[in-house]
């Protein structure tokens, strides 16, 4: 099975999400650092709250690069495989014949970047495939629908035989 | 199209009074006059008419809603499907093919019984609607029993006359496999034991945290605020004890009232499980709709050799009302308590395709079970250390106080790490997998052991999780995605080898 990478703009999207996360963390840290009078209190605040938050910010800013590097997906007539995760590497295999329905989704920032996600619904779980171009997502859905019809036909023929 | 029975309205004339009373209790503060010290001086007569008026309006609103609901709601049984129309603000037309029905349930609480009303719910097994049934019908108890029999027969392509009668497998008061009063008592005691253990652990950790933080808090805050914080902690501890006592009570009620007259019946195609005194549940589903059986053992149950049997059937979940579990899906009960040694014989007599297999593959290494979580515990304690000890020194605490806090922190770390290490050891000993031609058994859980037996065709996806180091050692955590309720469809088993992961993948492609 040929494994594909996500659209390069995926990294941009994740950096934007990371930026929003960083801003939220700074929104917690900065008012405290400004409002607490200089002295023991501020030192304590920066030591206890600031250090972990700064470490977290560094981690958030580094993660998108590795996330993109390690994300891959592929599909053929029988199955879909998605590999993702930086420290914990997940590899999901979904048989095409288990697909219940396929959805394409776009968030506001994804729309700005011309990206789409695909949700693969099975009878038990939903799996998301993040950040393809709109055309890629449509093509994937169309191809998988074709494979699904073919697999269902094959299965019903096997049952008849 | 047939209308819901009018008893629905009479039932709500009474049931809605309870809603109004709850609303009254929530807003009763508004009509009292209090002085600055918070003492009640009397009722504010100016507010009283508004208060009563609002409650009357609420009651009238509820009744109007019920009347409209009753006028709109209707159902019909056609040759091939059941159709229901309901909803006032949002109209819902539901159609479920008889052959696609997963679980057919009857529920009747004590007030509904007084009014001769019962609720029939039918679930199609769609994962998207697993938290609430698609079909809900309010009818008289007798009519619901008739509908239940008719739907069961139609599901199997039969008529009520030709359908095979159900045979009783297990009853509350007779037979070999009994969920007797004795077992109900044991069930309550085991639940109480578990709650007690949890409460004691929480109290111990809370006390350690408290003694660690006392010197810092006393120095940081003025005495008044410090005592307020201490009071808050005492209140939290009292709250924990109260919640535990409530849990004890609920546990006893659940055993004797919730599982009153517990019965399992079966015929060639269906299984029927009924229980409950205040709310009587009658759940029916075909054997072909059962996706798995879960044998659960909490730590106390494990110590005394007991287990709980659960069923994985979409649409069969414990709790909730009117087919709606508020989005929280819990696994359906098969048998609340039995000896672990009885599990095989019980399942052989009720659901032979789900007898757990012997474990054939076990977890490869112990270390991965604790590595990351120990690291996390270490980071949390390091942060605690950093936030407690240097500030204490900065605030001029005595060396003795610092030493005591340091010892307490180390004790806390030792308790948390020890508890986790034991849990991980139990998880390591339990983790495993067995695969046969027709089923898969997954062994997992630490303090709460869980043995899930599913049919091979219930497996919809396989996910393997590893880290670069684990991948080098050929160790994978496997997540099996089952065809069942959305909240319980992932079964996880830790630290197995690549060959097992590949074997599962080959099953998927069969």
Topology:
The complex is a heterodimer of chains A (about 160) and B (about 500).
Chain A: H1 9-35, H2 40-70, E1 72-75, E2 79-84, E3 89-95, E4 99-105, H3 108-113, E5 115-122, E6 126-133, H4 134-160
Antiparallel strand pairs in A: 1-2, 2-3, 4-5, 5-6
Chain B: E1 2-3, H1 7-27, E2 32-34, E3 40-43, H2 48-72, E4 74-77, E5 81-86, E6 92-97, E7 103-109, H3 110-114, E8 117-123, E9 135-140, H4 141-155, E10 167-170, H5 181-220, H6 223-258, E11 263-266, E12 270-275, E13 279-286, E14 292-297, H7 299-304, E15 306-312, E16 332-339, H8 343-350, E17 361-362, H9 367-394, H10 399-430, E18 432-435, E19 439-444, E20 449-455, E21 459-466, H11 468-473, E22 475-482, E23 490-497, H12 498-508
Antiparallel strand pairs in B: 1-4, 2-3, 4-5, 5-6, 7-8, 7-13, 8-9, 10-11, 11-12, 12-13, 14-15, 14-20, 15-16, 17-18, 18-19, 19-20, 21-22, 22-23
Helix pairs in contact in B: 1-2, 5-6, 5-10, 9-10
Could you please describe the fold and organization of this structure?
The complex is a heterodimer of chains A (161) and B (510). Chain A is 57% helix and 25% strand. With 161 residues, chain A is α+β, with helices and mostly antiparallel strands. Chain A has 2 domains: 60 residues; 89 residues, Pleckstrin-homology domain (PH domain)/Phosphotyrosine-binding domain (PTB) (PH-domain like). The model of chain A has no long low-confidence stretch (mean pLDDT 87). With 510 residues, chain B is an alpha+beta fold. In chain B, the strands form 5 sheets. Chain B has a 7-stranded antiparallel beta sheet. In chain B, strands 16-15-14-20-19-18-17 form a 7-stranded antiparallel beta sheet. A 4-stranded antiparallel beta sheet of chain B has the order 1-4-5-6. In chain B, β12 and β13 form a beta hairpin. In chain B, α5 runs antiparallel to α6 and α5 packs antiparallel against α10. The radius of gyration of chain B is 28 Å and the shape is flat. The interface between A and B is medium-sized, with 27 and 30 residues. β3 of chain A pairs antiparallel with β21 of chain B.
């Amino acid at each position: 099975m040929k494994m594909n990478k996500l659209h390069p703009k995926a990294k941009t999207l994740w950096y934007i999400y990371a930026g929003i996360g960083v801003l939220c963390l700074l929104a917690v840290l900065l008012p405290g650092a400004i409002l607490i009078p200089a002295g023991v209190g501020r030192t304590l605040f920066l030591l206890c709250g600031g250090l972990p938050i700064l470490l977290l910010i560094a981690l958030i800013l580094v993660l998108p690069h590795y996330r993109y590097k390690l994300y891959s997906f592929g599909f053929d007539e029988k199955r879909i495989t998605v590999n993702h995760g930086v420290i914990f590497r997940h590899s999901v295999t979904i048989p095409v014949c288990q697909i219940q329905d396929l959805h394409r989704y776009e968030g506001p920032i994804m729309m700005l970047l011309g990206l789409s996600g695909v949700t693969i619904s099975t009878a038990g779980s939903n799996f998301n495939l993040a950040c393809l171009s709109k055309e890629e997502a449509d093509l994937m859905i169309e191809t998988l629908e074709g494979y699904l019809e073919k697999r269902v036909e094959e299965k019903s023929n096997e049952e008849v035989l | 199209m047939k209308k819901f029975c009018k008893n629905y309205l009479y039932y709500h004339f009474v049931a809605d009074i309870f809603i109004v009373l709850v609303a009254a209790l929530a807003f009763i503060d508004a009509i009292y006059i209090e002085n600055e010290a918070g003492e009640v001086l009397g009722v504010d007569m100016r507010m009283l008419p508004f208060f009563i008026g609002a409650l009357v309006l609420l009651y009238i609103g509820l009744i109007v809603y019920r009347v409209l609901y009753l006028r709109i709601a209707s159902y019909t049984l056609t040759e091939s499907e059941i159709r229901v129309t309901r909803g006032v603000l949002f109209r819902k037309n539901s159609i479920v093919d008889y052959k696609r029905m997963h679980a057919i349930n009857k529920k009747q609480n004590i007030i509904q019984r007084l009014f001769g009303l019962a609720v029939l719910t039918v679930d199609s097994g769609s994962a998207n609607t697993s938290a609430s049934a698609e079909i809900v019908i309010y009818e008289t108890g007798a009519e619901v029993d008739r509908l239940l029999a008719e739907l069961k027969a139609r599901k199997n392509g039969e008529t009520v006359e030709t359908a095979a009668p159900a045979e009783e497998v297990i009853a509350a008061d007779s037979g070999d496999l009994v969920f007797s009063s004795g077992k109900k008592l044991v069930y309550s005691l085991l639940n109480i034991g578990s709650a007690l253990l949890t409460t004691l652990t929480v109290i111990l950790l809370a006390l350690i945290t408290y003694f660690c933080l006392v010197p810092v808090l006393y120095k940081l805050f003025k005495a008044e605020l410090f005592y307020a914080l201490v009071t808050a902690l005492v209140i939290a501890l009292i709250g924990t004890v109260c919640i535990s006592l409530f849990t004890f009570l609920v546990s006893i009620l659940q055993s004797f009232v919730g599982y009153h007259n517990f019965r399992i019946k079966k015929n060639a195609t269906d299984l029927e499980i009924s229980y409950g005194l205040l709310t009587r549940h009658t759940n029916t589903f075909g054997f072909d709709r059962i996706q798995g059986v879960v044998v659960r053992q909490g730590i106390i149950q494990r110590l005394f050799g007991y287990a709980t049997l659960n069923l994985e059937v979409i649409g069969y979940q414990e709790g909730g009302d009117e087919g709606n579990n508020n989005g929280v899906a819990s696994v359906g009960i098969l048998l609340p308590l039995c000896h672990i040694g009885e599990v095989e014989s019980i399942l052989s007599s009720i659901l032979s395709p789900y007898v757990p297999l012997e474990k054939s593959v076990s977890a490869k290494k112990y270390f991965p079970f604790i590595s990351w979580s120990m690291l996390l515990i270490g980071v949390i304690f390091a942060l605690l250390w950093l936030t407690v000890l240097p500030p204490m020194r900065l605030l001029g605490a005595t060396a003795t106080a610092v030493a005591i806090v340091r010892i307490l922190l180390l004790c806390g770390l030792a308790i948390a790490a020890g508890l986790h290490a034991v849990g991980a050891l139990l998880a390591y000993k339990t983790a495993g997998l067995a695969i046969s031609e027709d089923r898969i058994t997954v062994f997992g859980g630490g303090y709460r052991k869980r043995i899930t037996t599913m049919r091979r065709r219930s497996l919809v996806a396989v996910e393997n999780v590893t880290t670069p180091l684990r991948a080098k050692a050929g160790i994978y955590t496997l997540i099996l995605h089952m065809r069942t309720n959305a909240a319980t469809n992932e079964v996880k088993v830790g630290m197995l080898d690549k060959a097992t992961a590949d074997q599962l993948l080959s099953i998927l492609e069969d």
